[in-house]
Structure formats: structure tokens, C-alpha cells
Amino acid sequence: MNTRKRASGAKQSQRTARGALQSHWQQHLKTARESLFRLLSTPAATLMTIAVIGIALLLPSALYVSMNNLQALSGGINVGSQISLYLNEDVTYEEAFQVSEQLLQRDQIVSAEYISPTQAAAEFNAHSGLGDVIDALESNPLPGVIVLSPSSIDSTAASALLEELGSLPEVQSAQLDLQWVERLQAFLQLAQRASTGLMLILALAVLFVVGNTIRLAIEGRRAEIVVIKLVGGTNSYVARPFLYAGALYGLGGSILAWLLLSIILLSLRGPANELLALYSSDYQLQGLGTANSLVLFVLGSLLGWLGAFISVRQHLAAIEPR
Amino acid sequence: MIKFDNVSKRYPGGHQALSQVNFELVDGEMAFLTGRSGAGKSTLLKLIMLMEKAQQGQVFVNGKNLNRMDAAQIPFYRRRIGVVFQDHQLLFDRNVFDNVALPLQIEGYPKHEADRRVRAALDKVGLLKKEKMLPITLSGGEQQRIGIARAVVNRPKILLADEPTGNLDPELAAEIMHLFEQFNQVGVSMLIASHDLSLITRLKHRILTLDKGRLIQDAYHTAMPPQPGVSR
């Protein structure tokens, strides 16, 4: 009798344990849903909070995307890079032509074009509008130039090539106009550092915005919290709806940031492609992409949750039934 | 069930709410706590609820020393005690059913089990037909019944009530007290704070009288005091 009773008791407690676990998830789901409805029941206030979070998240996202684009763009920049070999004055047209033919034999060089001093002067006249200046001089001051397109630009290989070409007897000086790419890359590095700092600051802003919103929500539901604590609600039970609300604010904000970013990119696509076409590049402006979008949503939700968590920790314990 | 051992409570600011209170409420007993406003009735109940802590002496509930209970245990302890408040402490943004279901929700009862228990409690207090209504649309007596249904919904062994009939007319007050007697008859220990002497002397239960924080009288209005361990 006794053992049978115990056995059935054990079975029953097992059943209730499983039932309790199931209802634990049901409860979470229910709390999440209630938090969502609560936010939707005050649409104006909710939208305002989400807008602030959205803008705070938009800035770092936009920075990230533009940096990504610039980096991808500058990585494939070899299309536009050139080496200019300024020839000695005494190099004749034939000699120069020969040199450029020889250079073309090399693997590293795709094209070579000789521009004679006369051609250079004509170009200068046509483009600068300062033709009179050259005409006024006794002799043409412009040197002959061989313009080379290297096949691929890796900055160490490029500078080695540049040094070698510079030491050719016919060449007075060799110039690689890749410097701006290096400068851009250095600038990007700097900007990346700065944007990391900015991201941290804006993440803090999101924490504060959510924290403050949740603090107000806690104040507004003080009576309810007291009642829940009176009938045996734990701190974590009381905190749960606020944590969900925080995560929902963060998620809403990140979705808004994503939408705004998409609109901005869409409106930039036309002009950007035109600009890129001028550089004869077929590069396409990149958006956040699926993976990074998901990262944005997850980070946004986590930030919201964290903001709520900090706020809840500060303010909830102080509300006790008296 | 409930034991006060030389308990004193002084609020910050110097008000001596309770002085050296000793009494014991046995399992299944029903007692009234009376005295003027400010005599310490609410403080005594708050000590049992762990809303306050005594500076001196010890409070035992169910054999547990409340002085030794840490903050994390308090919610679980409170779930075993039903409390009825004078101001009802209802949530006015939820309907009657959800108010009563709150303690079960907190404990994570499965829905069908919770629903069954809520309906049983509402049936007991005669509000089954009003479960969908908001508390604000109901009368004071009905709101008090919601509070009572919520207090008993998870079948506590102890029920406390702080001036449960304070705002009710005599007829409703008697009805509420009758309801409490019914709970007591199925074995729930009850401690009810009330200053309505004419009502509680008619009911013939133990009466604890407080005056300026001291227990000045502990009298039985039944022929026989209940024996320890015997539920009536």
C-alpha cells in the first residue's frame, strides 16, 4: 500500500514536472505576447522610442556599409592605377618607342603608351587652357612620357616594379599614381577606428534610451508589481515582461534602422553607379547582406534586453509591498 | 501553525508597533485580531507576510523561523499563504478571471489545471458568472470576493485577512465572515484582523486583542478551545 502510494506519487510528480516545464515555455511565450500587445497599445510612445533607437542604430550601420563599399572598391582599384615614366630629354621618339615595346614584353605590364613631348604639349593646350604659356616659352618643357598599366597591384610588388623602372637609363623618374589608394586605405583604417568608437557610444545611447523607457514603464506599473510580489511573484517573474519589452524595442529599432538604410542605399544606387561608371568600374553598391542584417537584428534585440536588464536591476528591487 | 515568540517591532522614526507579543495559532484554528487603529494589527500580519521583519523575538510559520528566511525564499513562502486585503489589491486592467488566476500563473500551472482551479474558487465566492468582467465595474463586496478567491485559489494552509469587511455594510460583512468560516471548516488556519467587535464577538472564535502594540487579551468565545493538531 505504502510503496504503491509512493510509486504513484512519483509518477504524478514526474507528470507535473513535465507539465511545469511545458507551461514554463508557454508562460514565456505568453509574456512575450503580452509585452508586444502592451507596446502596441501605446503606438505613439512606442514608435517614438523605436525611432530614437532606430536612428542610433542607423548611424553605425550606415558607416559600416560605406566602409565596406569603399574597402571593396579600393581593393579592386587596379583598373585605374597607372605608372608614368618620365623620360630624359635626350631620348628620341624611336628610342622611346623601343623602350615601350620592350616593357610590353613583361608579364606585369598590360599596356604601354608613349606620349611624345609634342603630344603632351598639345594635350596640355587642349585641357588646361593655358596653351599660351607653353607657346610663350622658347622650347617645349614637357618631357616624353610612357604610361603603363600594371597587371595587378599589390603595393610591395608595385613599389619594386616602380624602383626597377626608375633605374632604366632612359627614365628620369617613375611615378606610381597609386598613392591615393594607399592614402584612402590609411584613411579607411582611421575611419574604422573612429566608427568603432562611435558604435560603442551609440550602443550606450540605445542602452540609456531603453533603460529610461523601461524605468518609466516600471513606475507606471508600480501597483501591479506590488500585487504580484504580494502573491508570491519572484523578482525574475516581475522582471520578465520588462525584459521582453526591452528586447522588442531593440528589435523594432534595428528593423527601422535596416529599413532606413535600405531606403538610403536605394536612393544612392543610381548616382553611385553613374559615378563608378565614370571610373569605368562595374562595381555595384553593396547593402548589408542577409548575414549582417541578422547580426543587426540580434545585436539590436540584445542591446534592448541589456538596457531593460540594467533598468530592472536598478528599479525593481526597490518596489516592495509595504 | 503560526507562533509569535516575544516579538517586538519598532518602525524607523521610533513608533513602537508591537511589544513582546506572544501567541500561537494551531493548525486549523480560526482567530480574530482586534484593537483600535494603530494598535498593531496590520504590523502583525505584515510580519507573517514578511513585508516587515521583527527586531526582537521570533515568528514561526509552519515550523519555519521567518528571521532566518532570505530574500530569495520569500516569494515561494508567500505562495503558501493566502492574504485578503482591505483595499483588495486587485489589478484593474484585467478581468475577474485573470485576477484570480494570477497566483497560479506565477507558479506556472498548466492552463487547463489553472482554469479548473480558478473556476472552483470563483464558484466558491459566487462570482462564476462575472469572470469576464473588469473589477472596476463590480461593487465593493464583489471586489472583496475577487480578492478572497485569489487568496484561496492555490489552496493555502493559512489565510490572513486585514480588515476584510472594513468598507462593507453589516450584511455583506457577515456574508464574508461566513465564507471565511467555510474555508476554516475544510482545514484552513485563519487569522483575521478586524475592529468590528460587534461582528466578531457574535462569531464565537478566539479573539486576540492588541492595544498600543501589546497583546492585552487572548480569549476564546467557543465553549472549548481547539486542541493542537485537530482540524475542525
Report on the architecture of this protein.
The complex is a heterodimer of chains A (322) and B (232). Helix content of chain A is 74%, strand content 7%. Mean pLDDT of chain A is 82; it is low at 1-15. Chain A has helices at 2-41, 43-75, 93-105, 117-128, 131-136, 155-166, 179-220, 222-230, 235-278, 289-315; strands at 83-87, 109-115, 145-150, 171-176. Chain A has a four-stranded antiparallel beta sheet. In chain A, 25% of the residues are buried. In chain A, α7 (179-220) runs parallel beside α10 (289-315) and α9 (235-278) packs antiparallel against α10 (289-315). By secondary structure, chain A is an alpha+beta fold. Chain A has two domains: 31-76 and 183-315, no CATH class; 82-177, 2-Layer Sandwich (Alpha-Beta Plaits). Chain B is α/β, with parallel strands linked by helices and 232 residues long. Chain B has a single domain (2-219), classed as 3-Layer(aba) Sandwich (Rossmann fold), CATH 3.40.50.300. Chain B has seven helices and ten strands. Chain B has helices at residues 41-49, 74-78, 96-107, 111-125, 140-152, 170-185, 197-202; strands at residues 2-10, 16-25, 30-34, 56-61, 64-65, 81-84, 158-162, 189-193, 206-211, 214-219. A six-stranded mixed beta sheet of chain B has the order 6-7-8-3-9-10, sandwiched between helices. In chain B, α3 packs across α4, α3 (96-107) packs parallel to α5 and α4 (111-125) crosses α5. Chain B is globular, with a radius of gyration of 17 Å. Chain B starts with a strand and ends in a 13-residue tail after the last strand. At the A-B interface, α1 and α8 of A face α2 and α3 of B.
